[in-house]
Amino acid sequence: MIRVLVADDEPLIRAGIRMILTSADDIDVVAEAGDGREAVEKARGGGVDVALLDIQMPVMDGLTALVELGRAAPKVRVLILTTFGERDNVLRALGHGGAGFLLKDSAPGELIQAVRAAAVGNAYLSPAATRHVADALSATGATTRGEAARRRLNGLTTREREVLALLGEGLSNADAGRRLHMSEATVKTYVSRILTKLDCDNRVQAALLARDAGLQPGGLQPGGR
C-alpha cells in the first residue's frame, strides 16, 4: 500500500482528496493535516510514503513544509497542489525537490496516477502544469536556455527525442507508449536512458529541457538522428 498524507487547510478539500485516493486499492490515506507544520510533524515519525501539500496554508505554507520535510523526513515524496495563479511558487517548489505538481482542478485519475508515480520515485508533472511551468520559465532567458537545451539534445537518437517530446507534454510512460505504439516497459527504459544522457535527476527536469528546446511531439529539432 502507498501511504499518503494529505495537507490542506480546507476540510472539505481534504475529504474529497481522501475519497478519490482511497478509491484505488493500492493507496491508503494514513494522515491529514490542516497546515504545513502539522504535516511535517505527522510525516516525521515515519509511516508516510507520499505527502500531498497545498501551497496556501496557515501557520506554515506548503513550500516551507516541502523544505522542512526534506530535512525531517527525506524519504517522503512530496506532491504540490497549485493553481494557475502561482507560477513563482511552482518554480520555487521545483527547485526545492518537489516530486510533482498538480492543478487543483485535475481529474481524479490524474491525482491517483501522480501518487503512484511519486511512490516509485518518479517525478510527475501534469500536462497542464507542464505548460504552466514552461510558460513561467519562458518569460526570461528563453533564447539562451533554448540554445543550451538544443545542444544537450544533440546526443539523443530520433526515438529518444520522440519519447522526450512526450515527457515535455507531461505524458506518463503508459500514455507515451500508446502514442508511440510501444510497451510501457520499453518507454521506461527509454526514459532512464534519456535521463542518463541529459544528466537529469528526474522526469520534471527532462520535461522542462524538452520545452526549452522547443521539442514537439511528431516533430524533431535540427540535428536529430
TrEMBL record:
Residues 149-214 form the HTH luxR-type domain. CDD domains: LuxR_C_like, REC_NarL-like. The modification 4-aspartylphosphate is found at D54. Residues 3-119 form the Response regulatory domain. Keywords: DNA-binding, Phosphoprotein, Transcription, Transcription regulation. PROSITE patterns: HTH_LUXR_2 (PS50043), RESPONSE_REGULATORY (PS50110). InterPro entries: CheY-like_superfamily, NreC/VraR/RcsB-like_REC, Sig_transdc_resp-reg_C-effctor, Sig_transdc_resp-reg_receiver, Tscrpt_reg_LuxR_C, WalR-like. PANTHER family: TRANSCRIPTIONAL REGULATORY PROTEIN NARL-RELATED, TWO-COMPONENT RESPONSE REGULATOR. This is Two-component transcriptional response regulator, NarL/FixJ family.
